[in-house]
Amino acid sequence: MKQGQVSQVQIMTPPKSFALFCLNRVFNYVAFVRSVMMARKFNISLVVAALSLITRILPVAVAVPDSVLRARHVQTPEELRDSYDYIVVGAGTAGLTIADRLTELPECTRRIPCFMWNPSDPNGDRQTAHLYNLTSVPQIGLNNRTIPLGMGFGVGGSSAVNGMAVMRGTAIHFVPPNPVLAADFNITYDIQAWGQYNDTRLYASFPGGLNPAINWCIETIYDGLIQTPGIPFPADGHAGNHGVFYYPLSVDPKTRQRSYSRTGHWDGLNRPNYDILTSARATKIVLSGKENAATGVECILTDTEKRVTVKANKEVVISTGAIHTPLLLQLSGVGPRMLLKKAKIPVKVSLPGVGANFQDHPIGPPIRFNFTKPPPPPTSNSTHLPPSEGQGQGLVADLPLPVAAPSAFPAIASSLARQDPASFAAPGTDSSVLRGYKAQNNLLAEQMLSSAPGSLSFLHWVIGYGTAPGANPINFHPTSRGTVSVDPDNIDAPDPVVDYRALTNPVDTDLMIAYLEFYRRFFGPEGPLAGYRAVETAPGAKVTSREDLAGYIRANYIPQAWHPVGTAAKMRRELGGVVDDELRVYGTRGLRVADASVIPILPGGTTQLTVYVIGEKVGFVVLSYSHIASCPETDFMC
Ligand SMILES: Cc1cc2nc3c(=O)[nH]c(=O)nc-3n(C[C@H](O)[C@H](O)[C@H](O)COP(=O)(O)OP(=O)(O)OC[C@H]3O[C@@H](n4cnc5c(N)ncnc54)[C@H](O)[C@@H]3O)c2cc1C
């Protein structure tokens, strides 16, 4: 395939190897994003790109009305089968992806129930009521404020309630081998691996609807960014580089409805080998024998409070998200020994990393300006707005640290590299976890010095929000590490104790100050927008000392953007890792974790795309391998 061709309008021949086939499946979703971006670059109508994809999946979509065909919905214990080959716990973003892939091969796998909690209406669509109502403990770094966090719990999990932004990290995240980054998820930026199959039913598109009130703002800021040294403008926001680009949404371009794991991986499936048990909360994985083999799942039926155990013949995959996965592991006896002992939970596997390494993208305090000489409103021939049929939700600028903090970056990097993580980690953190933090610090410090293509971006600026020019800077790579733990005094509580430990590492304050200073330069009298004579309204030009800025940050910092990761990290065990490269939980047999919790360091992008890929990895690449010997090759081609 030549660079620049629109992959979706080509009919490709099947790949020769199973591995390539799997990779192609993984990349379908991304490929569509890319084709849309390519279409914009080469002035090919987005509609053509979208239609080509729709045309290819249409026979399936038409022949299978959603209302009729779905996985068997099990609602009472009596309907459960005696045992299941695979049990996927959690019908969320990754969980539904995995269950779909496993049940694609009817001869090879049998019967997978997905447990989920409180889905009052499994046929329903996005409902705000389908959010967990969770709050963190008081944050010592944030003047003891508590922080609400929302995770989805309907069929579809967080993909059913999320903001639908579709982004990817920069390339370094996905280039193996790397001991502490996502690596090894077999994501590649090789265009050859993309877009050769179009059998996905998940979409990313530019559905239109960019708020006209903020267009002027985008136009003006875009102009300013062009004049700022060192900022690339990749035509394709998914090419793995930092820079300025429009991002698409997980929206079906035809129906303009949310495209999420339920519509992509559950609606329309009618498979005799697929059961879904709802209104059930898993409380424990049964680990048997010396090998701690996962032989079943205990759960509580939320309508009747009845407890049932479902038997697993082959594997259990935990896919309950970065907040509830560490809780479920700990309740099963897999976690930090001291914590489990305190909670009186028999220790099956001492794994200190379970619930450690907790991260989310923090949203910084607002910095706002008034233009006293306002820019002219955009005209219809504005050059920087996306084409009308291709309006996305927004424009972002993802900047490496040398661009965001051209004078501060060496000092920030060297202070991180010199740190002893024990000084900032939660009290009692195990030495293996501290070694993992050190490895992460070293990698982040190295990346803070780089603006090479594909290196990490640090400042994430979502442009165009707010009524006034300015920003709430988002830090793509915070250095503080939180914890998610069972409450030792109440192990029956459905939710864990969540502690962001926000701003406990002073480097995070240094980064936020550097970002606020970036905006002061950008909007100020020496910056590219000087002609508009901006006056700073928040925090105000008088707030300049480190102490004052740190106080402003402490009072306004929000340590989460609904992207929790890292609490069952895919890292080496001696670095505090919880799962290996194939996402198997250390010290167990037949137990994997596949959801956002395995991501060791936050990607420089929103998280859903990476989570889908994790689901694909487990559901298709890893588990399918165990059946290659017994399944005819053609099974994989259908
Ligand atoms: C409000 C919000 C906005 C977001 N915005 C964006 C965005 O714009 N772009 C983006 O890329 N990402 C966004 N994200 C993040 C993204 O959606 C998540 O990273 C991703 O969906 C996580 O997938 P997961 O499979 O790890 O977990 P989930 O999709 O959350 O799935 C976990 C599932 O497990 C179930 N579960 C939990 N505990 C149990 C139990 N004990 N027993 C049985 N079931 C259980 C839950 O009910 C849920 O269904 C947002 C998230 C939220 C919540």
TrEMBL record:
Residues 369-392 are annotated as: Disordered. Residues 321-335 form the Glucose-methanol-choline oxidoreductase N-terminal domain. Its cofactor is FAD. InterPro entries: FAD/NAD-bd_sf (IPR036188), GMC_OxRdtase (IPR012132), GMC_OxRdtase_N (IPR000172), GMC_OxRtase_C (IPR007867). GO terms for molecular function: flavin adenine dinucleotide binding; oxidoreductase activity, acting on CH-OH group of donors. It comes from the Eukaryota. Pfam families: GMC_oxred_C, GMC_oxred_N. GO terms for biological process: secondary metabolite biosynthetic process. FAD binds at residues 562-563. The chain crosses the membrane at residues 44-64. Keywords: FAD, Flavoprotein, Membrane, Transmembrane, Transmembrane helix. Belongs to the GMC oxidoreductase family. This is GMC oxidoreductase.
